[in-house]
Amino acid sequence: MAGAARRRNGLVAQDRMLEEAMAAIAEDGLAALTMSALADRLGTSGGHILYYFGSKDLLLLEALRWSEAALGEERAALLARRTAAERKLDQFLELYLPRGARDPRWMLWIELWARAPANEPLRRAQEEMDRGWQDDLERILTTGVARGRFAPVADVAARASELLALLDGLSTRVVLGQRGTDRRQALSAARSAVERLVPPL
């Protein structure tokens, strides 16, 4: 029983560290996040954080996994709703796009993309997290076509991949704060693209 309590406490501690890391990234940017800065925010030591994560790279990866897991639960709830496929697709777009220029999840994604080609574990983690979005989008498209809400799609997987690539591009523009591309404009552009790529019936 004591061992189980320790494991639970450890999970709580990790969640608290990841939550605080995401908050720090949103407030001060990714470059300002160091183990010592995070330790100061948490009132602990850098060594304590290293005990759980081993390195800053692993901390960042786990922070992204933690954030993606929460969004995965939101997507599961979305897919379970009794709403039309086109409404689900629109809500999927809203979940996918960053909330603004300082969205910590997207700042982590951009960092992961830059490091993944030279880091096999990071590349595998990227593919794993991407797969969840791809699978759920394919489900929405397949259901929409089957129920006569969308025009037939010859290759659902390819169309979903195309849409996700477009969303990645829009998201990067929002996070980088490029002129004329805030969340509202990105969402409008995404909706216009969806109308062309997945036309309603």
UniProtKB/TrEMBL annotation:
<keyword id="KW-0238">DNA-binding</keyword>
<dbReference type="InterPro" id="IPR009057">
    <property type="entry name" value="Homeodomain-like_sf"/>
</dbReference>
<keyword id="KW-0804">Transcription</keyword>
<keyword id="KW-0805">Transcription regulation</keyword>
<protein>
    <submittedName>
        <fullName>TetR/AcrR family transcriptional regulator</fullName>
    </submittedName>
</protein>
<feature type="domain" description="HTH tetR-type">
    <location>
        <begin position="11"/>
        <end position="71"/>
    </location>
</feature>
<dbReference type="InterPro" id="IPR036271">
    <property type="entry name" value="Tet_transcr_reg_TetR-rel_C_sf"/>
</dbReference>
<dbReference type="InterPro" id="IPR001647">
    <property type="entry name" value="HTH_TetR"/>
</dbReference>
<dbReference type="Pfam" id="PF00440">
    <property type="entry name" value="TetR_N"/>
</dbReference>
<dbReference type="Pfam" id="PF13977">
    <property type="entry name" value="TetR_C_6"/>
</dbReference>
<keyword id="KW-0678">Repressor</keyword>
<feature type="DNA-binding region" description="H-T-H motif">
    <location>
        <begin position="34"/>
        <end position="53"/>
    </location>
</feature>
<dbReference type="InterPro" id="IPR039538">
    <property type="entry name" value="BetI_C"/>
</dbReference>
